[in-house]
Fold:
Amino acid sequence: MKRTTSPSNFEKLVLERDWLQESIDYEYDLNDKRLNALLIFNAILFAVFGIVVEIGGEISNKVFFVLMGSAILGAIVSFLSIISTKSGINQIEKLKDRRTNLFAKLRPYMDVPVVGADCTDTNHKNGLIPVRFFPILLTVSWLILISWMVHNSIGSNVQHSSQLFHLSRT
Structure:
């Protein structure tokens, strides 16, 4: 059935509120997906390093460059995750600011005060710690691993995995 009258100002505000909440939820979901993909991708790359080091033996130049390429790829993906999660968090903050302004417009239509519209308390912000810092932690880990590999491979003609990573088997 076609509506013959346009929605009231209150109805428009409620529709905007619903859209803002869906947008905020969508951005949170995207950040969760980004973090999950980052952790899975990095777990696979770190597992490759662990397997090569555990197997031991001679590491040919090809294998060394594959490991170095994997480490560089891990660092790049982790760095890009820093950028994408930061952009998602910024978008969430913008949407929340817009929602706060919208609630101020809705207050005259409501009989009760609006509670919990801003979600700026410390507990909520603490929930974003993994999204904010895991990509940074992984980027730093990859950079340390790359520098360690470069440092230990310079000047050594024999690249044994336990020598490359200074591991001793007891």
Summary: The mean pLDDT is 78.
